[in-house]
Design goal:
It is a single chain. The chain is α/β, with parallel strands linked by helices and 328 residues long. It folds into two domains: 29-128 and 254-323, 3-Layer(aba) Sandwich (D-Maltodextrin-Binding Protein, domain 2), CATH 3.40.190; 130-228, Periplasmic binding protein-like II (D-Maltodextrin-Binding Protein, domain 2, 3-Layer(aba) Sandwich), CATH 3.40.190.10. 45% of the residues lie in helices and 20% in strands. It is globular. The model is unreliable at 1-26 (pLDDT under 50).
Length: 328
Amino acid sequence: MSFWAKRTIFATAVAAAAMLGGPKLALADDYPDRPLQLVVPFPPGGASDVVARIIGGELESRLGKPVIVMNRPGGGTTIAAKEVARAAPDGYTLFFSSNSTFTLPAAVKESVPYDAAKDFEPLGQVGKITLALVTYKDNPIRDLAALVAEAKANPDKLSLASFGAATVSHFAGELFKSSTGIKMVHLPYKGSAPAMNDLIGKHIQYHVDTVIAIKPQLDAGTVRVLAVFSAKRTPFLPDVPTLAELGYPGIDFSSWGAVVAPKGLPPAVRDKLTAALEDTINNPSVVERFSKVGFEPGFARYSDWASAVNKETAEMRQIAQAAGIKED
């Protein structure tokens, strides 16, 4: 083959490669050119749904295209997570969820239909909802020290409710019991509302719930909050001490939320989404809107998503195995 023939073949191959590379470059330059969907694995109306709709609306204004919130509850959030994990990694499918999706299922289930550490591209953690230990208003056991003393003197006499088996509420309660060395009877409910109703009615003695659910009852004077599970006091309950302040250091457990996408996003698309999300979470007007629903915003990029997910999953698995937590 002559030199000129080889040169012609080489030039043709380069041109073809450039044509193949064109759409990928256009994707990064022109993204987004159509509506996005933000999948939420919870039903409409709850705190997570409200937060997702605030985020979606703000991303829409920054990206210049509609961001449609899609509620896909079921399977303890795993149904939606599976669908997102298998979606095209083109930046048009986003997912807002929490440790209820990313770390807890693998800690209690024999199999999960996705690998949270490998199947998602993190755009950033966006904040958290604080958990708290609460009792009814006129409980004669009035503080945490008295509760621990009573539980140690009478193991399994007192009840501690959660808003569902294997939920963050359940895990927080078991972490509290193991940290204090006490035994209490776990009572799982099908949601926060029925548990709170039974607490107010004095059918149960103690309950772990979110500040979002507790605050209205606290304002109404029907409950008393003993402690929060966060490392620092929450601005929504500034007078309530942390468990660490009360002598149990190292406890920092909350329902944290993150926005992710299917693994394999083009870097330029990922960077554009992350920048828009960071700007959203740090916007003062957004912070004010979050505060109305009890969500504590705080943007953080993940330097190593897989390690963070695997580390927390291992920690949750230890709690689950020690307490016998099983999938509901």
